Automatic annotation (TrEMBL):
One function term, GO molecular function aspect: metal ion binding
Protein's name in the database: Purple acid phosphatase
Pfam families referenced in this protein's UniProt entry, alphabetically: fn3_PAP, Metallophos, Pur_ac_phosph_N
Family of the protein in this entry: Belongs to the metallophosphoesterase superfamily. Purple acid phosphatase family.
Native source organism of the sequence: Glycine soja (Wild soybean)
Domain Calcineurin-like phosphoesterase, chain residue ranges per copy: 299-514
Amino acid sequence: MEGFFGNCFNMILLMLCFTNLSIAFAHSHMNGFGEQPLAKIAIHKTVLALHSSASIIAVPFVLGTKGEDTQWVTVELESPIPSVDDWVGVFSPANFNSATCPDTDGIGWVEEPYICTAPIKYKYANYSNRNYAKTGKAILKFQLINQRADFSFALFSGGLSDPRLVAISNSISFANPKAPVYPRLALGKSWDEMTVTWTSGYDINEAVPFVEWGPKGGKKTRSHAGTLTFNRNSMCGEPARTVGWRDPGFIHTSFLKELWPNFRYTYKLGHMLSNGSYVWSKKYSFKASPYPGQNSLQRVIIFGDMGKAERDGSNEYADYQPGSLNTTDQLVKDLENYDIVFHIGDMPYANGYISQWDQFTAQVQEISSTVPYMIASGNHERDWPNTGSFYDTPDSGGECGVPAETMYYFPAENRAKFWYKADYGLFRFCIADSEHDWREGSEQYKFIEHCLATVDRKHQPWLIFSAHRPLGYSSNLWYGMEGSFEEPMGRESLQKLWQKYKVDIGFYGHVHNYERVCPIYQVCIYDS
């Protein structure tokens, strides 16, 4: 079985010994099952119950006065009728009453609610004071990120399922809510190109986006950036089109070209305003890709299904994505020990709550601003009935792939078709999209064969195949019950390509545990 996942883990050790090549890997392993925490809030059922003796105050009033894009906020609240199920929601923009609700035509609401947008996070009032139900007083700490709008805090009684609005706080804001934030590096379509994507509140008629960059300590140049966004009507269903909608701002991408292999470059994000002044981000750096075939240490991290979590304890994410921050923090700690990341699907598990994409880009920015952060499409990014996805499930919460395709760059020929090749030194990565048809005769099947067939194995001996769902083999219970031990039709359609072109390793996510498999080909599964 030489070449087809051929004793791949021993091969890694041999390559480490003889060519200084190493690869680190991890399958998805997070507990991401269950309901999106924000989906537990029946926000459209909110009833006005404002109480003159209830209060909620947030400080400081202005955030990011020293250029920070993240800051802790103190919220002090008091209620004359406290209960164990009281909770505080963070709303952004700060004005969230019915006047801000969109035209309901085509959205599907039975009647116009008082509040038509979910909070960006929430926390129970007794989170830091177990005696809140007796005293009616509590002080909560929230960590906020710059999300292009102001914030307010609201105290609710009645729990998450029957919310009653008791009090609303003052509004607070970052000093420059439109500032460029959360850079995401990615490989371009050629080996000597790096792309930089970021988010801001500046449309192109307000400011010109660009990146100022150059060799560390050397002359700097400027490269312009393109700008994209999406709107509520770009979403396929609810909650993304209803209570989960939040304006994503503007997403800018610049292409840094003709990089010298392995050089260290510095860069910063810029916007030239119409009055000639400039808005700048902090300074970042990255190392350019190695030349194809270069015999050097090249370290790759591959994982999936990480999700996002809240450092302030909001949203009960400790129950939803318990390992997300642990994984992120370990990747930050080890940042000097790897060169590129592949996150193969199921990224923030936003599931139609668009604010969570900002939260995710902020969570991983120390990683994505320093090394290429390559992504793949998962069911929680793409799947929605009757929208062209291979699976007619509602797993994306109505996003149908739009936020993922816009918030992150990947070197595909068509951004709506989430498959691409990436060349990095000794590696050729063929990244498939398990949420679109991959079967023989499909457009994606033709791409996969072309990607595998065109690699020069003398210069790039490592041929890697990856997708979100297990298209090879998995002993997971779901697949065992189906009798397939794989994503149905995956192995049948693709294994002859893996065998023909001698693919070295396949990586998959989706199944939330770790598993590695010996070389297999045309395996038959028999019922006992």
